[in-house]
Amino acid sequence: MDPSEVKIPEMKDLTIDNITENVHAINSQCPDPRLKYLLERLVTHVHDFARETRLSFAEWEAGLQFLTQVGQTCTEVRQEFILLSDIFGLSLLVDSIDHPKPKNSTEGTVLGPFHTHDAHAEENGTVLHHDPDGTPCLVLCTVKDTDGKPIPNVKIDVWETDSKGFYDVQYENRTTPDGRAVMESDSDGIFWFKAIVPVEYPIPHDGPVGKLLKLLKRHPYRPSHMHFMFEKKGYDHLVTALYLRGDPYETSDAVFGVKDSLLVDLGTVSKDQASEYEVKEGSKLMTYDFVLVTDTEAKELREKIAMEAMKAQGRKMKLYNGLPIPDVD
Amino acid sequence: MDPSEVKIPEMKDLTIDNITENVHAINSQCPDPRLKYLLERLVTHVHDFARETRLSFAEWEAGLQFLTQVGQTCTEVRQEFILLSDIFGLSLLVDSIDHPKPKNSTEGTVLGPFHTHDAHAEENGTVLHHDPDGTPCLVLCTVKDTDGKPIPNVKIDVWETDSKGFYDVQYENRTTPDGRAVMESDSDGIFWFKAIVPVEYPIPHDGPVGKLLKLLKRHPYRPSHMHFMFEKKGYDHLVTALYLRGDPYETSDAVFGVKDSLLVDLGTVSKDQASEYEVKEGSKLMTYDFVLVTDTEAKELREKIAMEAMKAQGRKMKLYNGLPIPDVD
């Protein structure tokens, strides 16, 4: 490029104290105001972190080496950066920010690194998991709106581990999805399938995130749970999970996913249910009534909370595509 | 592991407001107080960043995808995370923190991603670069201490690009190092070699960092420079570079490396020098007197500045292996 086209403020003699404003200046020509704001805050926090801790060269080098290993551990079926975000509570935080929930709607939780896009579409009554060692569990749920009206034709992704605590994608010889399906709620908002009782399991800890957990003397376990993801035009995307109450890891989940409202007690399949759903009487039963919020409800609540949070920053801000940016006019 | 051994505070119902303290709590059993402090500050900044910006799920996902690509772009000879740190000014900041310089000593600058450990040890007078298209440049330097006394036997790594702006490692068919050497200062603190005049060049911008620069409307250029790294027991490690004054990118270096004190004007080889150093009379000449600080000088200055910075945090702190940690006794 022609250097005469360089239209950034002149920089030289950068110091510990003036580097941040200079990086902001050089980034200030970004035409996307939201990206510009995100980078301004990111650079400020990263620099403040280094200044506050007096970050040493050796620590910086070890940190970059760690991030490199995290990136290189990622494959088609393993996302180590999501895992890192999970164990730092960032995933839970972002989900809470992006999907605020009015009272009485179903709370969200972490997506985790094991959702895939290749699960087969299945009818109500499908066998979700074929693991013969799993304890059979009938899952019987409804999807409603905040007024209590059933929502039909919601696309529902469901996924769980086998009885050993492994997802299908963790097996090298996986040929077809198992323990996962894409369901659809019927005209009464009902969806149901034959699963196995979820078990506790460690998140993958043979990589850099596992090494970090060890250094921190943290265990890698997640309490027993089953994942659900809900999607329907007009409704706010819901990523959530149901947790078995009383699990030994209920209050120390490695990825901070547990919420009181998502804890369930397993019931028992009655004689009538057994014949209606073609499962054994007395087998395990998981039921839950999910409540979705509309896009409009979510947007209003998200923007209301964002406005309140921006006020606390003591800076003139405005919303841009629903997200905060500095108001500089 | 036995869940009864879980000795962390009970967590559940985590929210936007309480997640940070809970992550601190779960990390609080880390036996290394420095790592614990680094993670406490890192988690705080990452969470504050998400809260302040109301980071959306889509932005979080794009960010993790970007970091994954950065990690996967790294190879034996390319460190894309260092490059990312460079273009955010973090590398320069960390170097400034870790290697404070008393007045009259040589300032440090960014290492960059192209230093290797396979450069050959060479005698004074070596030909650093064999590129026939380069403009020959005799480099004639001294290394002294802050009292002006020559320092012999300093190990000096030198590296520069060819005349097209590429380092040897950027060529796929590289078989042996070129444009790099490990020198040693003689008993008068002198080291010299036959290089080529440095040229401006873009940092590698065919990867994710290059894409980011493009989004930010930033150019990827570095002004013409030659890298130097100094190592001798008892002296603070010095990573620096000399920049050609008047380069068109002098005040807009993509990686924030330029300092006034590191700008040089090229001279001309005199008749006497030509015969002494066996180069052509009238060819280009680069001279510089580098000044190293002792480990003791650097340590004292680093700790003095760290103490001042800690005071500003309004928190009781102490030094641990020379680096700040909270003082919790």
Topology, element by element:
Two copies of one chain form a homodimer.
Chain A: H1 19-27, H2 33-53, H3 57-73, H4 80-87, H5 90-98, E1 136-145, E2 155-159, E3 180-184, E4 190-196, E5 201-202, H6 208-215, E6 221-222, E7 225-231, E8 238-244, E9 263-264, E10 267-268, H7 271-277, E11 284-292, H8 295-311, E12 317-320, E13 323-326
Parallel strand pairs in A: 1-11, 8-9
Antiparallel strand pairs in A: 1-4, 2-3, 2-7, 5-6, 7-8, 10-11, 12-13
Helix pairs in contact in A: 1-2
Plain-language structure description:
The structure is a homodimer of 329-residue chains. Chain A is an alpha+beta fold and 329 residues long. Among the domains of chain A are: 103-293, Protocatechuate 3,4-Dioxygenase, subunit A (Sandwich), CATH 2.60.130.10; 296-329, no CATH class. Chain A has helices at residues 19-27, 33-53, 57-73, 80-87, 90-98, 208-215, 271-277, 295-311, and strands spanning 136-145, 155-159, 180-184, 190-196, 201-202, 221-222, 225-231, 238-244, 263-264, 267-268, 284-292, 317-320, 323-326. In chain A, the strands form 4 sheets. In chain A, strands 3-2-7-8-9 form a 5-stranded mixed β-sheet, with no helix packed on it. A 4-stranded mixed β-sheet of chain A has the order 4-1-11-10, with no helix packed on it. In chain A, strands 5-6 form a two-stranded antiparallel sheet. The longest helix of chain A is centred in the N-terminal third of the chain and has 21 residues, at 33-53. Chains A and B meet through helix 1, helix 2, helix 3, helix 4 and helix 5 of A and helix 1, helix 2, helix 3, helix 4 and helix 5 of B.
